[in-house]
Each structure stands twice: as C-alpha cells, then as structure tokens.
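User: I'm writing a tutorial on reading structure tokens. Could you give me a worked example: one chain, its sequence, then its tokens, then a sentence or two explaining what the tokens reveal?
Assistant: Sure. Here is the example chain.
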Amino acid sequence: MSTKALLAASAALPLLAAAAAAHATIVATEAVSLTGVSPDALIMGVGTGVLTNTGTSATFTISMDDTIKDAGLKETATTTELDTFKGTFSNGVFTAMSGTAELETCTNASVICGALATEMPTAFTAVSGFFSAKNGGNLFATFFAPVLNIPVAETYKVTPVPLPPAVWLLGSGLLGLVGAARRRLADRSA
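And here are its predicted structure tokens:
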C-alpha cells in the first residue's frame, strides 16, 4: 500500500466518526397530554429524528406518525407531523431551546384533521429537556391549540439507534489496512 493510500485510509476514520456523530439517527416516541379534553382523547406517535449539528448549534428534526383517537368525536385520525427542535450541542448532548410543530398529512377524521389544519404549523410556547447522542433522554414541548382552547403538552422519549454493523466492519477494515501498510513500510526501511 502506498503512502498516499495509507494517508487516505487513516484520514477516512475520523471522517466516518464525524459523519456518524453529526447525523445520528434517533427514535422518538411521543405522548401528548390534552388537558381539559375528553379523557378518551389520546395521541400516541412513533417517529425517527435526525440530529444535525454545526459547531455548538444543533437542529433535531422528528417525523412523527401519530394516531389520534377521540371516543367523544368517534374519530380516529392518522397523521404525520414534522417537529423541529433548535438548541445547542456540547459534549455529545443536545439541549432544546425552541421549536415548531407542522402537520404534513391527516386522514380518516374530518373534525380532527380540520382542527389540526387550523392550528398547525405552530411554534412551541415552551421547550425543555435534553438527550445524549449516546444515552438518549427526554424533550418536552407545549403549544396552545386555539381551536381546542387548551395547551397541548408533548413529551418525546429519545432513544439513540446504534451504528449498523457494516459501519463497524468498514472501520475495523480500514484500521487493518493502516496497520498492514505501516508494517510494510517498517519492513522496507529495516
């Protein structure tokens, strides 16, 4: 292996690690509290989020697939919501500072979908929480729903997804090539 190839292989390892850290895929589950609404109203969602950081600034964008059931209205809506959190990223920890919720699709429930279309997109009125790209954590957001005339509190449980085995194999293969090339260079110079 030439010196240029050795340098290229050794330079690829930090780039691989940086790419994995900058675009960590994270699974978020959402639980929503609707204070003052029928006790039968329930919103649960599951989505995938992507954390993108530039220095100490970061954005966490989550595409959530939600199911909204309301026994009082006798409707069940299926929605896709895009929630975006802006915040800081330091020492592997994202801390939320602001955010927005935007409705992308809503089907199967005319009353619920009509209300959501009126209320979204909306800026969160309160945001808190943090998560580690390694250990996960929780984010909390609140916005006011004018049609329902209530605050909606959302809790996101964030769980990191480990890097796939193929990434680890690529990294270990590159390390093996670097080691073999160094051994060859040492043998030639001896």
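What the tokens reveal: The domain at 24-163 is CATH 2.40.160 (Porin). The first helix runs from residue 3 to 22.
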